């Protein structure tokens, strides 16, 4: 009798864990454990259908000073036929906010993500007065799972 109760409890726990995992994936998108290096920070990618989101896992010191934290969103966009489009963000610690700008690009060989756009210039009073005259290029390089 005790072993049947153990089996039943185990089955219920596994079912509850599977349901919680599915709910998390529905709410936050799939995270496959991949990590990406970007300007001295470690990032992670969430994919949910065509949606692509890149978050900070371990921001470098300069980004922490600018307001980035673990799980801060850096890119929010979509993929269609290999082309990624969406918004990247400039963080400003002085202004205590982040500023969006449009970027496009994609993934190459499953190991490099490259996005480019015209980043905003933030004024002393925390407004955007213009956008860059040359592309700001964001490059993310896959980190081996064995590192």
Reconstruct the topology from this structure.
Layout: H1 2-28, E1 30-38, E2 41-48, E3 51-58, H2 61-65, E4 73-80, E5 83-92, E6 97-108, E7 112-117, E8 120-122, E9 128-131, E10 136-143
Description:
This protein has 147 residues and is α+β, with helices and mostly antiparallel strands. The protein is built from two helices and ten strands, in the order H-E-E-E-H-E-E-E-E-E-E-E. It has one domain: Lipocalin, CATH 2.40.128. Strand 8 (120-122) and strand 9 form a beta hairpin. The longest helix is centred in the N-terminal third of the chain and has 27 residues, at 2-28.
CATH second-level architecture: Beta Barrel
Low-confidence stretches: 5-29
> Compute the gyration radius: what is it?
20 Å
- CATH top level label: Mainly Beta
Mean pLDDT: 83
Distance between the termini: 47 Å
Major β-sheet, in short? 8 strands, antiparallel, barrel
What best-fitting shape do the alpha-carbon axes yield? Answer: globular
Query: Count the strands?
Result: 10
Q: Total domains, how many?
A: 1
Summing up helix and strand content along with how strands pair, one would put the structural category as: alpha+beta
Strand content: over 45%
Helix content: 10-25%
Please sum up the structure shown.
With 147 residues, the protein is of the alpha+beta class.
From the structure above, extract its key features:
single chain, 147 residues, Lipocalin, eight-stranded antiparallel barrel, two-stranded antiparallel ribbon, 2 helices, globular
